[in-house]
UniProtKB/TrEMBL annotation:
Species in which this protein is naturally found: Flavobacterium cheongpyeongense
Protein name: Nucleotidyltransferase
MF-aspect GO terms: nucleotidyltransferase activity
Keywords: Transferase
Record has Transferase as a keyword: yes
Length: 300
């Protein structure tokens, strides 16, 4: 059912897929097997072919939307790479990747450029604060090309929320810097293959980081109890601010959407992960009602 689940997942974002893309999410070794499964879904009237895209339902306009988004993404990717390289120069940054819609080849006028940042242990909150201060001061708090909303440290490389959403995010993540760190990161998250058996990240295009002298000096100067005190202080200030600003978010939702530990910082107040999982399960129920085919629901 990976073919069907993949198509339904991306239909939430109105993003129809090609045969090669769908096949990459399946456990089929032979692309012809994936094509046969797709042909059967077309014969049943579940899918439609528009050019080379497989469209679920009657959302034929989604093909035009995707093509425009792909073009926009290709035009902005160079800027995203440069921003990722720039982020990698900040103190305590160990690795940087491009995530979100851009990592899937899509971007539009309402999109941000999302970055996934891996930091040194016990300095995550200092690293995060420095990046946020840069955004606020020099980018006038605009996150459009500088959205740093997910940090983990090298002490917590295994993603705790193991579901189809996070598996898709890890599969589509584009590592930019920190090759050795990403190699360990992916070995810590082999559970992704439970969802996508053929997933094998390609880290050959990226290298390891080379920090500027100023960054190395700052890291060396704060490699002591003072650095621990500053990091702890930034953590307390940030969490207190979030609890005040997002006090209407339920406690359990806060723990996921704004997860804040010594080694993890997420800033997703809209709880996008849960929204996607809920929308996907609704798609499954709708599909079962229309076609009498039951799909096991996902968990957040």
């Amino acid at each position: 059912m990976n073919v069907l689940k993949t198509i339904l997942y991306f239909s939430i974002f109105r993003y129809p897929l090609k045969l090669e893309e769908i096949h990459d999410y399946t456990n089929h070794d032979n692309k012809a097997n994936t094509a046969e499964e797709l042909d059967l879904l077309i014969q049943k009237g579940i899918l439609f072919m528009v050019d080379e895209f497989y469209v679920y339902g009657n959302d034929l306009d989604s093909v035009t939307k995707r093509l425009k988004g792909n073009l926009y993404a290709s035009n902005i990717m160079t800027k995203a790479y440069k921003r990722a390289k720039f982020i990698s120069k900040f103190p305590y940054v160990e690795a940087v990747g491009i995530s979100g819609s851009l990592s899937k080849g899509y971007h539009d006028e309402n999109s941000d450029i999302d970055f996934f940042v891996i930091t040194k242990p016990d300095r995550l909150w200092m690293c995060r604060t420095l990046l946020i201060l840069f955004k606020k001061i020099f980018l006038l708090n605009s996150r459009k090309y500088f959205c740093v909303n997910y940090f983990i440290s090298t002490s917590s490389l295994e993603i705790e929320e193991k579901n189809r959403f996070t598996a898709t995010e890890l599969k589509t993540l584009i590592p930019i810097t920190g090759k050795e760190v990403f190699e360990i990161f992916y070995t810590k998250n082999l559970w992704v293959n439970d969802y996508f058996p053929k997933f094998k990240p390609d880290l050959s295009p990226i290298g390891n980081q080379n920090k500027p002298f100023f960054t190395k000096t700052l890291e060396f100067g704060l490699n002591n109890t003072l650095g621990e005190f500053v990091d702890s202080g930034f953590k307390k200030i940030t969490i207190a601010k979030w609890k005040s600003k997002f006090k209407n978010i339920a406690t359990e939702d806060f723990k996921i959407a704004l997860k804040s530990t010594q080694d993890i910082s997420k800033h997703h107040p809209s709880n996008f992960q849960q929204r996607v999982i809920l929308a996907l399960n609704e798609k499954y129920r709708e599909f079962q009602k229309n076609y009498n085919i039951e799909l096991a629901e996902e968990h957040a």
